[in-house]
Amino acid sequence: MTMTLTLYAHRLSQPCRAVEILLRELEVPYKWHEVDFANGQAREPWFAEQINAFKSIPTLISAGDEQSSNADFRLAESHAILRYVCREAGDQEQARRWYPGDEGPRRSAEIDQWLAWHHGNIRSYDSFHPIMNLHLTLPMLKYELQDTQIRPLQEGLKSGLAMLESHFEGQGADGSSPATLCGGEHPTLADLSTVCELYQVVAIGYQFKGYPRVSQWIETIASRPHFKDVSAEILDQGRTIREQSGNYLELENAFI
């Protein structure tokens, strides 16, 4: 990429972290612009008019010069951004390990399949942000909100975890070699997006005791240096919630 990239994002957002991790993995230079999405900055008129009409993050802007046909190219939606970065990265050998594109249409289709599944399943049961809101509420309401908001999300997530556990078992994954969604030792965009999603839960301190292959897979992806660096903020937030939560979160027994 020869244009200047700016990533509008926040590191407490799962999709934002996935995009930033990939940019770092592929050594693609970018500028960082933090968007305070929790306080509605992405919904302010200037953002919708100048950055992203969808009013969402992450957003990637490729700014060229006035003569460039690609000047001020704006792209929203993390999966679209991830594919674009792989297609345009300078190190195509490395990029194709994450997403081969036209060089490997069947493998790309399999990656796309898991990305679509992630968005309609695992992502639908994000509990981190409700837990963060719960963390800030009055003590007398915590257990009530746990029952009405958090536990239903956790129960919904279990079906996705069971699907993943069965998938890895079918691959013969036993912890002796790294498991990936599409097979092979190197992770793909599907692994990156889905693990970023599940890491929200891990950051708080939840343990996927009933899903050992999933736990090992998350640990393997999360041990990559760029993943660890970009995830530092979510780990800090998760630690704060955990240390101040008391026992209402049921960290050890929620996913047995």
List the helices and strands and how they pair.
Blueprint: E1 4-9, H1 14-25, E2 31-34, H2 45-50, E3 59-63, E4 73-76, H3 78-88, H4 92-98, H5 105-120, H6 128-135, H7 139-171, H8 189-204, H9 212-222, H10 225-230, H11 232-244
Parallel strand pairs: 1-2
Antiparallel strand pairs: 1-3, 3-4
What would you note in describing this structure?
This protein is of the alpha+beta class. Helix content is 54%, strand content 7%. The protein has 11 helices and 4 strands; from the N terminus they run βαβαββααααααααα. The protein has a 4-stranded mixed beta sheet with strand order 2-1-3-4, with helices on one face. α1 links the parallel β1 and β2. α3 packs antiparallel against α4, α8 crosses α9 and α8 runs parallel beside α11. It is globular. The termini are far apart. About 2% of the residues have low confidence.
Any descriptors?
alpha+beta, 11 helices, 4 strands, 54% helix, 7% strand, 256 residues, 4-stranded mixed β-sheet
Taking Cα atoms only, what radius of gyration do you get, to the nearest Å? 19 Å
Calculate the terminal CA-CA distance, rounded to whole Å.
Answer: 45 Å
Number of strand segments: 4
- Number of helical segments with 4 or more residues: 11
Largest sheet: 4 strands, mixed
Strand content: 5-15%
Spatial ordering of strands, largest sheet = 2-1-3-4
Task: State the helicity in percent bands.
Answer: 40-55%
* Low-confidence region ranges: 65-69
Order of helices and strands: EHEHEEHHHHHHHHH
Question: Would you kindly provide a brief summary of this structure?
Answer:
The protein contains 11 helices and 4 strands. By secondary structure, the chain is α+β, with helices and mostly antiparallel strands. Helix 1 links the parallel strand 1 (4-9) and strand 2.
